[in-house]
Amino acid sequence: MANTTTNGAFVEFERVQKSYDGENLVVKDLNLSMPKGEFLTMLGPSGSGKTTCLMMLAGFETATHGDIRLDGKSINNIPPHKRGIGMVFQNYALFPHMTVAENLSFPLEVRRIGKSEREEKVKRALGMVQMNDFAGRRPTQLSGGQQQRIALARALVFEPELVLMDEPLGALDKQLRETLQFEITNLAHELGITVVYVTHDQTEALTMSDRVAVFDDGRIQQLAPPDELYEAPQNSFVAQFIGENNTLEGTVKEIKNGVALVQLDGGGLIDAMPVNVSEAGERTRVSIRPERVEFNKSRLHADAHTLQAEVLEFIYMGDIFRTRLRVAGTDDFIIKTRNAPDQKRLVPGEQIEIGWLPEDCRALDA
Ligand SMILES: Nc1ncnc2c1ncn2[C@@H]1O[C@H](COP(=O)(O)OP(=O)(O)O)[C@@H](O)[C@H]1O
Ligand SMILES: [Mg+2]
């Protein structure tokens, strides 16, 4: 393994494991290296170990094995309040008996910053989240979205280099969540801070992050920029978890010229890119995105393998058409087409032929 302490990484997890009960590992061999200024999201189902990783980084939990480093230094030797880490949680955690200004001033007092400098920093932090008019209010006099803005301002007020956020928008409604997603990413980039953000919401992860670490079962399943995660999932879990996806099971018949020919269990032969398969006879799940399925034969290669499909449902969604098909033994194969003037609207009961470019269909682990 490369010497990770000298590569300029700002946050590093090296072979980190965590067990709460001395028996079961909830984090298994975690390796992660983040440069300064990166916005990285840990995305995964509930119980996959995201919060545990954040707590270890913050210093509220210790790793059972491995090393966590901040700016090249092992954090085991730095007490939590000296790590210069700002934190934002889902449940705001503002002090209810203090005003907004007092809540923001508190982390500065702890750091023994003088009164006039405190006032200046509080004002600036409130400005960042557009809450200057609310300095005198108490948390109970604020809406959920406003409280979360204040929690964000409080995490930023002492100008930390690293900010950790654990599902900070989870309790908010959709519209407010989207507004704040945008504000948080802008603010993070403007201030040049490094962010580790935790969510189970894949849209949030894709839209906000420089890179996303997809967690499952205490492991990072894939760590990549959003477009790479969506377009080149490395395994079936990631393909299913990120975005909408069609899955068909089958057996590899042959691999030739970089294309796998797959015999589907439900009948039919298709072309796929061999990602997690290497030889004939292997079981596989092939994964194809709904928007990459083609039913206009003139747009397919002349020798492309196609499948017979029956249209079960056509849903007009305004910008796109979403059509459900019966294909190779499954009733929930989805295709999405853009609502363009020349786009055909399929009709339930219609028989069609579908296909795709081999590179758009990935043969993954079974
Ligand atoms: N303080 C704790 N004591 C014992 N088990 C815990 C504790 N915190 C979390 N766990 C367990 O560790 C696993 C991972 O939890 P967590 O890191 O909170 O996952 P996530 O944030 O991805 O939902 C879960 O099985 C959870 O029940
Ligand atoms: Mg959690």
Describe the structure.
- The chain has 8 helices and 19 strands.
- It has 366 residues and is an alpha+beta fold.
- It folds into 2 domains: 4-236, Rossmann fold, CATH 3.40.50.300; 244-364, RNA polymerase II/Efflux pump adaptor protein, barrel-sandwich hybrid domain (OB fold (Dihydrolipoamide Acetyltransferase, E2P), Beta Barrel), CATH 2.40.50.100.
- The chain has a 6-stranded mixed beta sheet, with helices on both faces. The chain has a 5-stranded mixed beta barrel with strand order 11-12-13-19-14. Strands 2-1-4-5 form a 4-stranded antiparallel beta sheet, with helices on one face.
- Helix 2 packs across helix 3 (115-128) and helix 2 (100-110) runs parallel beside helix 4 (144-156).
- The site of magnesium ion has 2 residues, from helix 1.
Number of domains: 2
Radius of gyration: 25 Å
CATH homologous group name of the largest domain: P-loop containing nucleotide triphosphate hydrolases
**CATH topology title of the largest domain:** Rossmann fold
Report the β-strand fraction as a percent range. 25-35%
> What's the helix count?
8
Instruction: List how many beta strands DSSP finds.
Output: 19
Largest sheet: spatial strand order: 6-7-8-3-9-10
User: Which class best fits the helix and strand makeup?
Assistant: alpha+beta
Largest sheet: 6 strands, mixed
Small molecules (ligands, ions, cofactors) in the structure: adenosine-5'-diphosphate, magnesium ion
Shape annotation: elongated
CATH architecture level-2 label of the largest domain = 3-Layer(aba) Sandwich
Question: Class of the largest domain, according to the CATH hierarchy?
Answer: Alpha Beta
The arrangement of helices and strands along the chain is EEEHEEEHHHEHEHEEHHEEEEEEEEE
Low-confidence stretches: 1-5
Could you give the distance between the termini?
30 Å
Catalytic activity: ATP + H2O + polyamine-[polyamine-binding protein]Side 1 = ADP + phosphate + polyamineSide 2 + [polyamine-binding protein]Side 1
Protein name: Spermidine/putrescine import ATP-binding protein PotA
Subunit structure: The complex is composed of two ATP-binding proteins (PotA), two transmembrane proteins (PotB and PotC) and a solute-binding protein (PotD).
Function: Part of the ABC transporter complex PotABCD involved in spermidine/putrescine import. Responsible for energy coupling to the transport system.
